């Protein structure tokens, strides 16, 4: 008979999983909290269906006290059914069950020796320990690999990767095993055909109209946990066919060569902005409603990112749950590690940087909230002095939760070479040039400080600054970024709504930045608006060896504008192959 027992410790939870092996059931113990433990198991008297029992106890509680509590609850639970039964033979069976459970023996032992009466619950949940309930003996296994959650998405489409939403305990995603099956419902039977292995699976034409199932076997070192299987609720559909980004994949079909690294910057359109009544009816009325849902867009997005074979990926407008549940799961399985910096405020989205672990290792992060640091950090005092004279400007800045994400990476191929990767998303309003210049000046002042600090260690350090800057190439911000400075004689920065001029709006930096992707027609294209807003700025220590061509204008407007059934975002990814000089 297959049974389970759980022992749960708020930092020591024990889960007993009973498998009949040589007449020995298994007891699985999970560590969770420091002070408490939960014991849960299935048990049934002779001839009765097993029931699940759960006991939440202090780890320090003496074992005899815990055992008495277990006996009492087992007796009570097994006796409950008697009151609900209407058949006399069932009543007699339950009465016998109650009699059997009154003096139910419950005990623990370790390596064949009985536990001393003053032992605590925490002391008995160790390797080599056993639990006896009646005549059933359970072997205790500590912290087994476990699948806690396993789900499949609603949208399953030919040619687009599908992957489970999964929550593992005591197991790493990369260690676990996944097997995919096509499930065909015939008239009198169900036919299961193995179709793939690995965390992701790409359905093909043979899967059309059929369900998919995935089985996960969690693993931790040499230990395997109990497998879990989930069947999709929907069948595989045809999907949108070839997407324009798949043409771009022709230029990135091979990984970057040694000594080269490929970088992607991409505003992926946060789900909190995409799937709302406003976006469906006003902002993107031309886009099919289903194509704005995350369940649909994430499949396009992840296929797009996977096909670029990038080494560094900078993403903007990343929902926290999308980072945790979608991006980390899939990109980790592809050899990436990621870090996330959320904006401050009510909207839970921010910036994410992923790096390929075969190319880079993370040395540290230097993230900041722009307004907070501007007001509190002395290294920004020269900027604060110029802008604090305007109450309107300070009020506007304080309403922005803009962040700068900074990760310092070291090359695996050439140890000692470092890459400072910066990522941001500046304020979007068309009349906010003055705010973006201040935000840009704050970003570059911080990056100069990071570079100077790292260069004191005598390592080669290069800078890549990616993001959605919400500024076109003729803007004051773009001039500031690429020319090294801006003066009020060239750009009279006007405060939105008040007409007030921002005095002393002269800012400088010495980072010698240039736009790696060169001139583009646009990087953002929505109904009634298009512009170049996204950039990948690099310093003089980096060479550009290849820029992946943008989609054609005809491809962009085939469904009126972006996003669409073939474009998951209203922005277009920028991709470059770079080398150190």
Automatic annotation (TrEMBL):
Gene3D superfamilies membership: Endonuclease/exonuclease/phosphatase
GO molecular function: metal ion binding; poly(A)-specific ribonuclease activity
Stretches with biased composition (Basic residues): 77-86
Location of this chain's protein in the cell: Mitochondrion matrix
Keyword field: Exonuclease, Hydrolase, Magnesium, Metal-binding, Mitochondrion, mRNA processing, Nuclease, Phosphoprotein, Transit peptide
Superkingdom in the source lineage: Eukaryota
InterPro entries from the UniProt entry: CCR4/nocturin_mRNA_transcr, Endo/exonu/phosph_ase_sf, Endo/exonuclease/phosphatase, PDE12-like_N
Keyword Mitochondrion in record: yes
GO process terms (BP): mRNA processing; nuclear-transcribed mRNA catabolic process, deadenylation-dependent decay
Pfam families found in the cross-reference section: Exo_endo_phos, PDE12-like_N
Coiled coil: none
Residue ranges annotated for the Endonuclease/exonuclease/phosphatase domain, each copy included: 264-362, 449-571
Annotated 2',5'-phosphodiesterase 12-like N-terminal domain residues: 144-236
The UniProt record lists the keyword rRNA-binding: no
Region entry Disordered, spans: 77-100
A GO cellular component entry from the record: mitochondrial matrix
Required cofactor names: Mg(2+)
Protein name in UniProt: 2',5'-phosphodiesterase 12
Species of the source: Pinctada imbricata (Atlantic pearl-oyster)
